[in-house]
């Protein structure tokens, strides 16, 4: 193993850059500034901002991240509903989030907090489509943090329901 003190500054910088690049998930790259209307901002303890210290995402950028689709029933909709969106963990990864707590805020400033570690491989999902159509503000959109409630009893709890914030517009990552 090479000791970092034995490296010259340009070499050490290259090693550090390579280490950071290899720590990103496969296919992840820093996102450019949004071209369209911003639908979600991620701020706070992040390492990959794209505009003025925040990660600002338009709908096309959100849709460029790995996609999830599932069917489930909810306590707010009738019958089985199909949701399409992006795992919260993938948005946090794109932002280079390093904090331990998330403050998620809706368009009307309603806010919930949750541990960042609860953003898992199955849920929650930041949905932007419901039953094949983009969601309007009137229909809990344009973004709704949802869980595949029917797939796991852990997603049918008061805690999961309380975290299912609709009209999501901002995420602050807190140390």
Instruction: Please state the CA-atom Rg, rounded to the nearest Å.
Output: 18 Å
Shape, per Cα inertia axes = globular
> For the terminal residues, how far apart are their CA atoms?
32 Å
**How is the CATH topology named?**
Sulfite Oxidase, Chain A, domain 2
Please write the string of helix (H) and strand (E) elements: HEEHEEHEEEEEHE
- Neighbour order of strands in the largest sheet: 2-1-10-5-6
Estimated share of beta-strand residues = 25-35%
By oligomeric state, this entry counts as single chain
Number of separate helices: 4
Main CATH class: Alpha Beta
* Corresponding CATH architecture: Alpha-Beta Complex
Number of strands: 10
Uncertain segments: 1-28
Report the structural category: alpha+beta
Q: Profile the largest sheet.
A: 5 strands, mixed
CATH superfamily: Oxidoreductase, molybdopterin-binding domain
Keywords:
alpha+beta; 5-stranded mixed beta sheet; Sulfite Oxidase, Chain A, domain 2; Molybdopterin-dependent oxidoreductase; 5-stranded antiparallel beta sheet; 175 residues
What does this structure look like?
β7 (125-130) and β8 (133-134) form a beta hairpin. The strands form two sheets. This protein has a five-stranded mixed beta sheet. Strands 3, 4, 7, 8 and 9 form a five-stranded antiparallel beta sheet that branches. The protein is globular, with a radius of gyration of 18 Å. Mean pLDDT is 87; it is low at 1-28. It is α+β, with helices and mostly antiparallel strands. Helices cover 20% and strands 30% of the residues. It has one domain (32-174): Sulfite Oxidase, Chain A, domain 2 (Alpha-Beta Complex), CATH 3.90.420.10. The protein has four helices and ten strands, in the order αββαββαβββββαβ. It has helices spanning 9-23, 59-64, 88-95, 158-163, and strands at 38-44, 55-58, 68-72, 81-87, 101-106, 111-115, 125-130, 133-134, 144-146, 168-174. Residues 1-28 form the signal peptide. This is Molybdopterin-dependent oxidoreductase. Keywords: Signal. It comes from Neotabrizicola shimadae.
């Amino acid at each position: 193993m090479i000791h970092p003190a034995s490296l010259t500054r340009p070499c050490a910088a290259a090693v550090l850059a390579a280490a950071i690049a290899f720590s990103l998930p496969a296919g992840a790259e820093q996102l450019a500034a949004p071209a369209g209307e911003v639908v979600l901002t991620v701020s706070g303890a992040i390492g990959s901002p794209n505009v003025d210290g925040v990660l600002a995402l338009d709908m096309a950028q959100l849709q460029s991240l790995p996609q999830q689709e599932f069917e489930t029933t909810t306590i707010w909709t009738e019958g089985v509903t199909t949701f399409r969106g992006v795992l919260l963990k993938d948005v946090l990864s794109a932002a280079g989030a390093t904090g331990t707590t998330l403050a998620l805020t809706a368009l009307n400033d309603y806010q919930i907090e949750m541990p960042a570690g609860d953003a898992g491989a199955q849920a929650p999902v930041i949905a932007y489509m419901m039953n094949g159509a983009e969601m309007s503000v009137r229909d809990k959109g344009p973004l709704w943090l949802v869980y595949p409630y029917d797939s796991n009893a852990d997603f049918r709890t008061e805690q999961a329901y309380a975290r299912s914030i609709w009209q999501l517009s901002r995420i602050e990552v807190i140390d």
